[in-house]
Amino acid sequence: MLSSDKVARITAAMPFWLTYILPPLVWLGAVQGGLWVLLPPLATWYLFSALDAALGLNRENADPLTEERQLFWYRLGVVCWAPVQFLTLYALIWYLGRADHLSGWETFGVMFGTGVMTGSVGIVYAHELLHQSNRVERSLGDWLLAMVLYSHFRSEHLLVHHLWVGTPRDPVTARYNEGFHRYYARVLRDCPVSAFRAEAALLKRRGLPWWHRRNPFWKYAALQLAMAALAVALAGWFGLLFFAVQAGVAIWQLELTNYVEHYALTRRHLGEGKYEHVKPHHSWNSAHTATNWLLINLQRHSDHHYKPDRRFPLLQTYEETEAPQLPYGYPIMTMAAMVPPLWRRIMNPKVRAWRRTWYPDIEDWAPYNKAQTPTPRGAG
């Protein structure tokens, strides 16, 4: 176990700052054009996967009792990303709105690369920030989500996913044999409604109507409108197109990650709408070193569900006997998810082995496969 003193060193935090190579890579594509526009996806999906192959697994855990003050360099890297992304995104919109040296496919390549940046890093950092109690950090998380038109993710993630993961109430728990493309259409349809229901129910318990000013959906709408309006102000309809394309790419990456994280891992129904507590074996994990740098330990997902407010450098990894492990890091697994037959070939045997290990007494999995077990009691 890494001691608190070792965790606190700047050298221990620096690998997580590698994500800051992405803004210069996006700018390189915007200025140079050509194949340079491919650098952001090549770096995030392939370079970090290659580093995984070279560096192997990191099963070392930091001392979870490390004090907040000793995590300064980690927190700084996350907090600084919000202004860096904001300036990069809108400067690119302004620049490309006036540039005439790029072809149509090169322009789209820059938009796509920007979405890789705002999705692979921006949404992951927003996820880290929205789990914190600090108001400034949570506000920065809201700004990052508004930059990709996915503000409702905060409500869905905090009020639904963490409570009801592995049950029919959680839209983002992918079902057994559900291909990503079908899953993607379903979550785009269901998640905003699910998030709004959760916020309305919370307000009702406080004796307030859904239209009360404390409903964060008003804030979500205002922030997203402001972000889109700024894009238009900087580059007209082209700016809005750029903004929408990068947001779409970012959302696609987020939902690919959601799909991988809990694919077919369901909680046991105990009867009368009761479900077992969330346990480490209800999340897929990966200990691949480099992609955990890129995704600030998001792949240590079981511990995140155990301690949602635990800051990312303190998240603990698990052995195969405690939680299921992915054969590769998230970038390779999400690429596999885009090809459903390949995904099923890789993952369905692992799901069946998981079921034999953790639930050998369950003979009929059909209701779990189709999310037809009862709605959790209290979920609404």
Automatic annotation (TrEMBL):
Residues 105-334 form the Fatty acid desaturase domain. GO terms for cellular component: plasma membrane. It holds the Pfam family FA_desaturase. One of its GO terms (biological process) is lipid metabolic process. The keyword rRNA-binding does not apply. The lineage of its organism: Bacteria, Pseudomonadati, Pseudomonadota, Alphaproteobacteria, Rhodobacterales. It is found in: Cell inner membrane. This is Alkane 1-monooxygenase.
